[in-house]
Input
Amino acid sequence: MTKTLRTQLGELAELRDALGNQVGTPARWMGSLRREVRAASIGSSTSIEGFSVSPEEALALTGEHGAADHDDENRMAVSCYARAMDHVGTMAIDPIFEWSDRVILDLHFDACSFQRDQDPGLWRTGPIGVTGSDGSLEYVGPDADAVVGLMAEVVASLVDGETDDRVDVVVKAAMAHLNVISVHPFRDGNGRVSRIVQSLVLAREGQSAPEFFSIEEYLGSHTQAYYAALRETQGGNYQPERNASGWVAFCVDAHIAQARARLAQIEEAATRWGHLEGLVAERGWPERLVIALEQSLAGRTDRSTYAEGADVSPATASADFRRLADAGLVVQRGRGRNVGYVAADLLRATATTAIRAGKAQRG
Output
C-alpha cells in the first residue's frame, strides 16, 4: 500500500465515522433524506448502462409503493435494481449469511429479471465483449467455459474477506467490484451486479444504510472516469495478475467525494427542516405538515407515503395536501391512483434561501 493511499484511507475513515454518527442520530428529516439518497443512487447506477428516468420517477419507483410499467425498460431497470438493493439490506444483517455463487446469481436475477431474453440469474454460455462509444472492442471477457470456475474463485475471495481485518472494507469492496466485472459472467447487467456486490460487501461489514455509503451516484456522474479506470486496470482482456492499485485509488477517491457530499446533504436537510418547522408554525398548522413539505421537496410524494410517515389516515393525508396546495406550497401531479405531489416553486425558493443562509452562517 502506498503512502498516498494510506493517507486517503485515513481521511476516508474519519469521514465514514462522521457520516455514521450523523446517519445513526435520530432526526425527523432522515427518513425523507434516506429515500432521496436511495433513489439517486439507484437512478445513477442504472443510468450508467443507459436506463434513464427523472429524479421524480426514481423516487416513486424505489419507494415502498413503487410499481413500474412492464413495457418501460427504463422504469423496470430502476424498480428491479431497487429490489436487489432491498435484498442487499436483508443479507447485510442476516446472522447466517454465507457468500456463494447463488448469492450473486440471485442478485443478478433481482436486478435484471425484466430482461428475460438475457437469462437473468444464469451464467453466460457464450463469448462476451464490451464495445466503446465508437464501436471498437474495449474488453473481451474470459471464455464461457471458464466462468463457473472463475466465479468460484471470486466467491472464495469474498468468503475470505469476511474474516480478514487487515484490509480496509473499501478496498475489499473495490476488488469485489473489479473481480466480478472482469469475469463478466452474465450476458447483460454485469456492471449493475458488480456495483450491487460492492454495496453488499460494504453493508456486510457494518456500513449501515448502504445508500449513504455506496458510490453509485458518484460513478453515475463520473461515468467516463469510471470506465477509464476499469480499462486501465483490465488491459483489454481478462488478466487478473495486473496491478489493481489504480482502480482501488479511484474507488477510494469516489468514496471520499461521496462521503463529503452526503455530509453536506445532511446539513442541508437539517437546515431545510428547521425552515419548514418555522413556516408551519407561522401559519398555526399541525406539525405533521412539515413531513409533507419535506417529502415534496425531496422529489415527489403521495398520500400513502405521507400517511405512513405522519401516522395519519388517508383522509387526513388528502386534507393536508389540499391545504398545502391551496397555500401554493405544493403542486398536484397525475390523477386517480397516480396522484402525487411535488414542491411548488415558492416552497423551493424559500427552502433554497434558507439553505444558503445556513451555509453562510456556518462559514
Observations:
- The chain has two domains: 28-258, 283-362.
